[in-house]
Amino acid sequence: MIGPSLLGINTALNIVNNFVVYYLEVTLSVDPIPASVVADLTWISQPFVALVSGRIYNRVKGIKGLFLASAIFSSVGIEIISYPNPYASAFGAILMGSSVGIGSTVGFSVAREAAKAHPRYESLAVGFQHDPLPR
Question: pLDDT tens digits for 26-45?
Answer without folding.
Answer: 999 999 999 999 999 999 99
